[in-house]
């Protein structure tokens, strides 16, 4: 027997379990996917790329991750599933080899004023326990340090059976919470400008109330006229003190008007419940504008904005209270926690220090735990969600990331790449949707979707290695090595916008002149003070159009036509051409199909199982009544018009019988931002992140303003789309606008006329202007991190 034969005989046959090293997807048809079939290697880092709207999110999040989460949920009892969100099975033929998926997406964190960075990451929970054990004076349990728990006490008689007798006892209870009673744990108190609620020179019947929806023609009119507390025909200026108090502050009181039981309540408590207690961004635009006008928010004078009671602030560890700890920069707080030597709470301290160090490692050491989570950018929110996974001991998990480099300076991208590789090296499958070449470069496997966006996408154009992608000839492959060149000549400014003594957040009395009439880029590492400088010193309004990263809110009934205001002129044109009411041409109003209420589908709720959506049989998904579809404009009915892509609709409303300049202008702006392929009636819920960002940009382009402020407009944009964005910015400047862009993308920096670089670091290590000048000067000087990376990018 030869040695070789002997070795072969001793080698065991492959185990059957080792054959499942691939995630297999066959026949995926979610959104615009066209029967996609693909095999993804496990325990590797796979990057999905392609133009915005090509189907990356549909494949990775809506198919692979969604099915993994649905199957995990099905392992729970039906009782537990009843409390969980029901998920439908994705539209796919075969999904094999799935592992547990952990999704780290770009969804902005809740804007609830009680939610902070500390509460969202459990760092606050650990701090509360720490202070309840070590804080002096001792004031109570961890609840006593929570600004979400109010102090309450109560008592009363209770009856219960004991030994066949009814026994009556008096019981009392006390809960000591940390919530400041003045601001109820919000840190701010609101004051209402009465002049914005009513016109004192008018009576109620003359329309004195300025509050949206408070018309005297409906229920409010019936309540105000029938309550008897004041004369609705008397001008409010002549109200007695009691009448004015009843109008503004009266507690809910049952009244009877025309034999109907109603509830009367003063204006201020009513609008506090209906408007002021809600997230401002979730309100309708006209209500949001009213709330902004009518209310002013000031720091709570009792707790000085800390949200905590005096007792919670008085308990300290080595001279530091919990409010002081939450206000510290996290990198400083980690250093303080490391210095505590308390064996009695050693495990807690170790966990707290690890969590705080994770913030620093991921590039968020400049935040503080008291920072409201709703103020975080999309990139910051995604990295905060990553915190809890960095120290996880789980392996063979699928981590799914949505553009984790968004909001990161080129200097920080290398660090993010290292974290993704660490997760992979622990034996996990890492799936990343990404556009940045620096992030694509670390992939073990690349999947390129396209070739175009929307209906022109939805197929796999390439899968393989990075070198293979470069040689593939796909849109991504052709643009992977694109580098924008520095401008040969820059525009001369037409004026200056002076900023003096800017000190918002970490800014250190910054004095800077922003040139007008040119393209100005404000850059610097994440947390250096860019947004604080621009948004804090250039207020929106008065000729300033600010386009931030805030999410577009909208239900499945919202679409580009409703969001941009395009539907209004279209409805009026249909109404005028056919001699009927405009409301007939709205699927959310009189023209809606009665069977599906204008949704196009009929939803059946199946409790803990996924609901079923079936195309409405009566309107066949067109959302309108049959009678409405008999009315035409330019030979098309309203359903056919809403099914058009932007480019076709632009041509339709640009000439001929259906010529409509108001609609044509809006459609031109949508085409200008690269959304020509988008259906104007497509639900907003089906749009990708990059498409939503550009939709918002197109909407604001129609506003009158001399200064445009854009916050990272390249977020979610493919390499091929960045060139189109630069052309758009040039057109805005050439039209006489001043464009100020907060941006990390080197192509935008290279294309700028003027660069303002902040730093040198983040948090209290930043807040200074470290460079002002042209991109060429920045590259030549190489005096800042931005300058070094831009020089490497342009090959300078």
From TrEMBL:
Keywords annotated in UniProt: ATP-binding, Cytoplasm, DNA damage, DNA excision, DNA repair, DNA-binding, Excision nuclease, Nucleotide-binding, Repeat
GO terms for molecular function, please? ATP binding; ATP hydrolysis activity; DNA binding; nuclease activity
Pfam families associated with the record: ABC_tran
The record's section on InterPro entries has: ABC_transporter-like_ATP-bd, P-loop_NTPase
Give any single GO term for biological process.
DNA repair
Query: What Gene Ontology cellular component terms go with this record?
Result: cytoplasm
Primary residence: cytoplasm
Q: Where is the ABC transporter domain?
A: 490-785
Q: What top-level branch of life does the organism fall under?
A: Bacteria
Places the protein is found: Cytoplasm
Family recorded in the similarity comment: Belongs to the ABC transporter superfamily. UvrA family.
PANTHER family the UniProt entry points to: DRUG RESISTANCE ABC TRANSPORTER, UVRABC SYSTEM PROTEIN A
- Name recorded for this polypeptide: UvrABC system protein A
Tell me what organism the protein belongs to: Actinomadura verrucosospora
